[in-house]
Specification:
Length: about 270
Amino acid sequence: MTPILTFAAKEFRDGLRNKWIAGATLLLGGLAFALTFLGSAPTGLLDVKPLAVTVVSLSSLTIFLIPLIALLLGYDAIVGEAERGCLLLILTYPVSRLEIIVGKFLGHAAILAFAAIVGYGAAGAAAAWTGGGDAESWRAFAGLILTTVLLGLAFLALAYLISALVAERSTAAGIAVGVWLLFVIVYDLALMGALVASKGRIGAEIFPSLLLLNPADVYRLFNLTAFENVRKLSGMAGLSASVHFAPAVLLAVLALWSAIPLALAASVFARREV
C-alpha cells in the first residue's frame, strides 16, 4: 500500500497548491452560502424548511459543476504524464501500473471530497446558524454531500478512462468536454425526445432503467426523491411514485459508476505502450 499512498499524497499536495482547485472550492462555497440565505427568504411564508430549499438548489447546481470539475481534474492524469515524459521515469521504479493509477485516483478523489465537504459545509454552517433545519432535512443534506462526492468520483473515473485511451492531452480535453455535455445536457434531452417519439411505447419499467445509465440522473433521483420534505419541494413526487429505487440502490449504482470505469482504465493502462 505504500506506493499507492505515496502517489495519492503527491496528487493531493499538488492539488492543494493548485490555484484552480482553490478557486473551485471557493466557488462551491460561495454559491452554496448564497443559495442558503437566498433560499431561506420565502420559507417562513410557505412553511418550508430552509435547509430543504438548500438541498434542492444545491442539487441543481452540483449537476453542472461537479462533473465538469472532476473531468478537468483527471483528464490528463495518464496522458499528461506520458506527454511530459514523467510516466516513463515513474515506471523505472519498482511500482506496478495498478498502484500508479489507483494512487493517483485516490489523490484526486481526496481533492474532490475536500472541495465538496468544505464548499458545501459553508451551506450547512449557514443553515445551522439560521436554525432552519429539522432532522430529516439534515439527513437529506448529509446525503447531498455524500452523493456529491460519489458523483465526482464517477466522472473522475470516466476522466481516467479517457486519459488511458488517448495519446494526446488535447484529445483527452475535447473528449472530456464531450462527455460532460453528453451526460449533463444531451442525455436527458435525447431521453425526452425518445419518450415523445415512442408515444408511450417506452413503458414505466424501461424508463427508470434508462435513468440509471446516467450518473447525473442517479444523483438527481437520490437527492430529489429520497426524502419526503425535499421531494414535495422539488416537484418530484410524481416521478418518485413511478421510479421505485431504494436510496441504497441508487448509492450502489453511483458507486458502480466509479468502480467500472476505473477498472476499465486500469485494464487499458496495463496494456498501454509508453
